[in-house]
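Q: Protein A?
A:
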Amino acid sequence: MNRNGRFLLAFLLVALVVAGVVSFYASGDPDGLTKVAEDKGFIEQEKDHALKDSPLGDYAVSGVDDERLSGGLAGVVGVGITAVVGGGLFWAVRRRGGAQGGARDQRG
């Protein structure tokens, strides 16, 4: 494995640990928007998100009763999805750029 591959693997492992373990210790205080809504008096207008009952809704995995495990799994799944989608986009753009560069080389 080359240097870039080792770096990406280390980055992915750190992201998984942060999402799966450290995220449990995040602040329980409300986020900025909720705090402003409370301070300005329009928190009553808050509505649940349309995907609240989805498998990863509300930063948890539905069907897992242990709060710590559920939140950790949601974080790990989120990192995995982000890595696959981001990596796929990067690979597609890189491949396309390589094909265009190759065509230019043949013309010039």
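Q: Protein B?
A:
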Amino acid sequence: MTTITTTDLAGAVEDVAAHLYVWALKDIPQDLRDALAAARDRETSTTGIRILETIHRNVSIADEQKNLVCQDTGIAVYTCRVGEHFPLHPARIYASLKAGTARATVEHPLRSNAVHVLTRENTGPNVGHRLPIVHWEFIPDWDGLDVKCVPKGSGSENMSFLKMCVPADGVSGIKKFVLESIVDAGGKPCPPGIVGVGIGGSADYAMYLAKEAIARPVGTRNADPLVAQLEDELYGLLNETGIGPMGLGGDVTVLQCHIEHADTHMTLNPVAVNYQCWAARRASAHIAADGSVDFDREF
């Protein structure tokens, strides 16, 4: 466990952002490593086995050289759980996350991926207008701050899908859309990865939920038993598609399927799918009100 203590909270948040961005890109979580090892053990396709062994060699080399597991450093997406008594305003938190992202990009250095959406001109060290992206959750009666960084590369993020199903489509309509989305994606998002499904809320919130789903520890299940049952069913169905590692055929198309859900309007049934490639990168930290940081606490 790494712990730092500082009275400069803005500086602590900046340091955490810089550390999490690089850490996520270089050191994939143990639960993902275990899932990749299990995938290699159960894959029967010769090509699929070779691809999964190459992925393992890729991870080993990244560990040995303390380097990135993928050349695409993505854009940094943060989720912040802010206690109502945390002594730093969210505006200052955002400024520190932005400064930390830019600092990490320059100091490592990382590839600068951020561009203006129309001119395609590079906007600098992975920051720009409304970049990095930050999702917020505010927690009552708490004085801490949790920060999670999920770098999103283009291959997986391009394979995002949204459908406004109607209530009459029911659960079968949800399953059909998820399966069709992953079959359409094929090998483009570098499978096997994590399929995140967001159900409910509104169109934009369903996509946010799908992204939260891909950032859960691999194989964890939704607390709602009905949703957990759907996760199990979709996980099995997706691996029956035969898409396989890198879309070249095989038994292992996805490492897991996670679902996050919200209640919705009686006439709505939004369903979003977000894909995270095999290098399903994530890193998180907890910052206490006194400035101490715990990098072992995941949320």
